[in-house]
Amino acid sequence: MKKGTLFLIPVPLADNAAHKSFTPFLVDTINSIKTYIVENEKTARKFLKEAGLKTPQSELSIHDYGKHKRGSSLAAFFKELNEGIDVGLMSEAGCPGVADPGADIVAEAHKRNIKVVPLVGPNAMLQALMSSGFSGQSYAFTGYLPIDKGDRAKRIKDLEQLSQRYRQTQLFMETPFRNNHLLEDILKNCQPNTMLCVACNINAEDEFIKTLPVGLWRKEKVDLHKKPTVFLIYKGN
């Protein structure tokens, strides 16, 4: 029996950003499938409604891949795919599989010889890189830095050195309620001429993206508390 296809469906990064995020192919895709694997069922149902789903939601089969479901067997998520039924995979926001637990589902799909199709859509890391003015030829996304203050300071200095050595843009992030602490540590531990881009609330109505040398950032006053933010540093010389 021919297996189904796993479609990777991006979700808007912010409220009221739907019109910036949807493509005709995405809308056609969600109206051609009725089974989904999602990180958050409530968010997923809201997204599908905003995206123009014509299928009654009562007819959908939604498998929740929330925190309480991780670490156990993934077999249950592949029942429909093994039966030839196409399935959509959705993160809570942005692209599934990128800084996202959905990567486990994608990896398992490849192991099971299931076709994976990524759809075009919003991605905070890529959009931050695009708008930073930093090198897009060589870049690395580190994800979350250590929580321990000493370890975090060392990691920031290491990333700064890597950026200088390889002329490589370094991207990282933090849990939103710790953003201000991370910014303080970047400004404390990086050299004044190191470039820093702060990309906050990407695609939202109050989107804030700014690039300055660390020395000038030290004179700025910004509040990033509880606002999804990507930090980028670049030291080209």
Automatic annotation (TrEMBL):
Which terms in the Gene Ontology molecular function aspect does this entry carry?
methyltransferase activity
Q: What is the name listed in the Swiss-Prot or TrEMBL entry for this protein?
A: SAM-dependent methyltransferase
Q: Name one GO biological process term.
A: methylation
> Which controlled-vocabulary keywords does the entry list?
Cytoplasm, Methyltransferase, rRNA processing, S-adenosyl-L-methionine, Transferase
Q: Which organism is it from?
A: Pedobacter ureilyticus
**Lineage per the UniProt record:** Bacteria, Pseudomonadati, Bacteroidota, Sphingobacteriia, Sphingobacteriales
Q: Which InterPro entries match?
A: 4pyrrol_Mease (IPR000878), 4pyrrol_Methylase_sf (IPR035996), 4pyrrole_Mease_sub1 (IPR014777), 4pyrrole_Mease_sub2 (IPR014776), rRNA_ssu_MeTfrase_I (IPR008189)
Q: Where is the Tetrapyrrole methylase domain?
A: 54-206
Query: Which parts of the chain are coiled coil?
Result: none
Q: Which SUPFAM superfamilies match?
A: Tetrapyrrole methylase (SSF53790)
- The source's domain of life comes to Bacteria
